[in-house]
Amino acid sequence: MHHHYFIGIKAPASIEEIVQLYRDKYGLSKNYKVIPHLDDLHLTLLFIGALPEQKVETLQGSLAALADKHSNFPLTVDGLSFFGSPKGPRVVYMSVQPSQELDALQQAVATIGTDQLGIEPDNRFTPHITIAKKRKVNGDSPIQKETCTPRPFHVKGFSLFRIHPSRTPKYEAVQTFSFK
């Protein structure tokens, strides 16, 4: 059995307070099956899924070379949003202001995924930090999109994460790739 992986940017600790505020305000822990541990909050650049161990090393080399071509850049968490119906969305997340640097990084990571791992390109990248997913109630549990005081942070790199479904926290940074 192969481990599952994704490539992402760890969310800053500076958003934990607002995440908890929104989780409490909307009762997310009672309405959703998956409430990510605060240490697991991240922005996904590419979901990989199952990956044979022999492909991990090659992938790490490509990601290290990619990181060498990028510089630190700012990102800003600016509100609460969701995927799905406002009456009971399937995913609730912290929104991130648009960023050309982030888009370019995600495209470069996705190209590696396509070229090396055969992952189908997906041009629907919506940068977000999931705070709740997989509804467990059938009735309405409405959520409104909200803006919050912008919380800027600097992205200094990204990581290859291994998923451990039975652990808490679930995500282990196998390797972090720092920008030059």
Q: What do you see in this structure?
A:
- The chain is of the alpha+beta class and 180 residues long.
- The chain is built from four helices and nine strands.
- The strands form two sheets. It has a five-stranded antiparallel sheet. A four-stranded antiparallel sheet has the order 3-1-8-9, with helices on one face.
- Helix 3 packs antiparallel against helix 4.
- The protein is globular, with a radius of gyration of 16 Å.
- The relative contact order is 0.28.
Keywords:
27% helix; five-stranded antiparallel beta sheet; alpha+beta; 4 helices; 180 residues
Largest sheet geometry: 5 strands, antiparallel
Shape: globular
Quaternary state, please?
single chain
Q: Radius of gyration, Cα only, in angstroms? A: 16 Å
Tell me, rounded to a whole number, the average pLDDT. 95
Strand order of the largest sheet: 2-6-5-4-7
Helical segment count: 4
The run of helices and strands is EHHEEHEEHEEEE
Helix content: 25-40%
Secondary structural class: alpha+beta
Low-confidence stretches: none
Instruction: Count the E strands.
Output: 9
How much of the sequence is in beta strands?
35-45%
Quote the distance from N terminus to C terminus.
35 Å
Question: Layout of SSEs?
Answer:
Blueprint: E1 3-10, H1 16-25, H2 28-31, E2 32-34, E3 42-51, H3 53-68, E4 73-83, E5 91-96, H4 100-117, E6 128-135, E7 146-155, E8 157-163, E9 171-178
Antiparallel strand pairs: 1-3, 1-8, 2-6, 4-5, 4-7, 5-6, 8-9
Give a brief rundown of this model:
The chain has 180 residues and is an alpha+beta fold. The chain contains 4 helices and 9 strands, in the order βααββαββαββββ.
